[in-house]
Amino acid sequence: DTDDLADALAIATPATADYLLVCAGGVTFEDADRPTLKVDQHDLLVGLAAAASSGALHVPLVVALMAPGQLAVAPWVDGADAVAAMFLGGQETGNGWADVLLGEVNPSGKLPVTFVRDEKDYKPPGPCVGEASDHCVYSEGLNVAWRGMIGSEAVAFSFGHGLSYTSFSYAWLATPVLAPDGSVSLSVLVNNTGAVAGAEVAQLYLRY
Question: What is the pLDDT of residue 151?
Answer without folding.
Answer: 83
